[in-house]
Amino acid sequence: MNRLAPLSEEPTNDEEEDNNNSSKKVSSWRNWLKSHFSLLFNKKSDLKILLSVLGCPLFPISPHAGQPNTHVSSSAEYIIQHFTAATGCRKLEGKVKNVFATGKVRMAMVDELGSSGSSTAVGPTGVSQKGCFVMWQMVPDKWLIELVVGGHKVVAGSDGNVAWRHTPWIGAHAAKGGVRPLRRVLQGLDPLAVSAVFSSAQYMGEKRIMGVDCFVLKLSADHTDLADRSDNTAEMIKHVIFGYFSQRSGLLVYLEDSYLTRIQSPGSRPTYWETTMATKIEDYRTVEGVMIAHGGQSSAIITRFGDNLKVGPAITRMEETWTIDDLAFNVPGLSMDCFIPPEEVQKDYPEENLDWRSPLHR
User: Fewest C-beta atoms under 10 Å: which of 111, 147, 163, 280?
Assistant: First the structure.
């Protein structure tokens, strides 16, 4: 392998189509399209889709990126201050060097027929897949997660400079864009990261969701990062996330993000892929004096549309229930060596072959 292909959070298939070798970019595009569509219409590949989309998604922006063009209102500042006070996370500053967590997941595809857009309105189409995960994080940008579901193991990590993922069907892949945290960490497991990443958010008003009156904050990936996460065949158009903070408790109770990608091969019409993920965050418990979320449910919807889809938009839905079994701070023995990427990711690549730029791609 001369270089790593960009990381995509949707799955790729075991089968490869390499009949036309005249252009690596065209071949890459054909393989991407073939593998994505074959998986989304092949029920035997449900588990691969679940693991690729729900397993290790990344947050839209880095806690260090900030939103320089966004005016942070006094309302947004108040919401974050309320959150930090409610969780008690300020006491962790300067004291916590690493975090360790273990948990369980249950994933399933969701029936598309008759669905009104809510995963709670319909049931799983097939057998739910159970699994577990272990996660390590070292302040500030180093993290590693191992997730095993249905006999398949997915590993993803970041050493602070490059992020990567390894699956049984595509091996190890580097990622595009700026360094970003694992989305699971922002699902109430790391209140300090939540307060840091939303400190520059835009206040969007109030909304009642799941019977809870919430304040809503919005974050968007900037144009530079979107460009870094794009290439000649796949253009990242937007990636936004909304955080819903309870007006009463101050806690983060819901996350909803969406990203839109435009896919076009030379000489063909574009296809658009929109992935929306929503997560209910609950069961906050005290761990060493800090409120940590210990459970929740996530749902994801992948919508594909464009002129070349004659029958109209194609929709794939999936859901996950997750729980945290154990969480600890400052675990002895955790070192920088634990976050070293696989050998393939550490290779040096010729400048002319780089169509990914630094570390992360959604």
Answer: 111
